């Protein structure tokens, strides 16, 4: 394999192994076997299991979200719920995320790294989404971006990562309205049906 292919294979194997056994039982040897490379190939790139996990997981978690500017708060919420639901529904993510959060409670370095990523995501989501909604007059000027992120991401994370229930389209639509109301947005204006012209007299 070429150098780039080896790195890609290691990263893929790391995510699969992490999902299968968790951080505590993860070993460089097992990752190397799964990737089809030698342990030396891994140690040339990363000095330890912790460094390997932190770099790869942070790269995955820190990937940029697609543009969320749909032109309305409810449109932005709907899009971000779809993106988050898709990401957290992935079999690897559903295993890795809870395990790493539990490990972070025991490992200060993992905790510090994850917190940095979460703060960056908080700014990416809360800072931009809330600012646009405020500028459009959809949210109050004093809306707290940090509290907004908790309200936006919290219910969906709970449903997907904790209760492991698959959200339906109807659930996501209801969540949009609940979160918009919780953030202080005005109620959605019902769509007006097109007026039906009266029938011409016979």
Task: Give a topology summary.
Elements: H1 3-25, H2 28-35, H3 39-43, H4 49-61, H5 73-89, H6 91-104, H7 108-135, H8 145-162, H9 169-183
Helix pairs in contact: 1-2, 1-4, 1-6, 4-7, 5-8, 5-9, 6-7, 7-8, 8-9
Provide a quick synopsis of the model.
With 202 residues, the chain is mostly helical.
Q: Count of helices?
A: 9
CATH class of the largest domain: Mainly Alpha
CATH superfamily name of the largest domain? Tetracycline Repressor, domain 2
Structural class: mainly alpha
The quaternary structure here is: single chain
> In which range does the helix fraction lie?
55-70%
Termini Cα gap:
82 Å
What does the average pLDDT come to?
A: 84
In this structure, how is the largest beta sheet organized? Answer: none
Low-confidence stretches: none
Number of strands: 0
Tally of distinct domains:
2
CATH-assigned fold name of the largest domain: Tetracycline Repressor, domain 2
Structural description of this entry:
The model has no long low-confidence stretch (mean pLDDT 84). With 202 residues, this protein is mostly helical. The longest helix has 28 residues, at 108-135. It has helices at 3-25, 28-35, 39-43, 49-61, 73-89, 91-104, 108-135, 145-162, 169-183. The chain folds into 2 domains: 3-58, Orthogonal Bundle (Arc Repressor Mutant, subunit A); 62-183, Tetracycline Repressor, domain 2. Helices cover 70% and strands 0% of the residues. The chain is elongated.
Key structural traits:
202 residues, mainly alpha, Tetracycline Repressor, domain 2, 9 helices, Arc Repressor Mutant, subunit A, single chain, 2 domains
């Amino acid at each position: 394999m070429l150098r780039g292919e080896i790195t890609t294979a290691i990263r893929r194997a790391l995510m699969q192994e992490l999902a299968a056994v968790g951080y505590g039982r993860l070993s460089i040897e097992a990752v190397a076997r799964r990737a089809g490379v030698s342990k030396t190939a891994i140690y040339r790139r990363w000095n330890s299991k912790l460094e390997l996990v932190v770099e790869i997981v942070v790269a995955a978690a820190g990937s940029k979200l697609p543009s969320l500017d749909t032109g309305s708060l409810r449109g932005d919420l709907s899009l971000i719920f779809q993106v988050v639901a898709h990401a957290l529904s992935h079999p690897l993510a559903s295993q890795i995320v809870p395990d790493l959060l539990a490990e972070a409670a025991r490992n200060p370095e993992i905790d510090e790294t994850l917190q940095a990523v979460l703060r960056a995501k908080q700014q990416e989501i809360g800072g931009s989404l809330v600012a646009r909604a405020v500028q459009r007059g959809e949210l109050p000027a004093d809306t707290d971006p940090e509290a907004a992120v908790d309200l936006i991401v919290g219910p969906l994370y709970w449903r997907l990562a904790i209760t492991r229930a698959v959200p339906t389209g109807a659930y996501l639509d209801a969540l949009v309205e609940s979160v918009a109301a919780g953030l202080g947005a005005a109620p959605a204006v019902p769509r007006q049906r097109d007026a039906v012209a009266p029938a011409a007299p016979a």
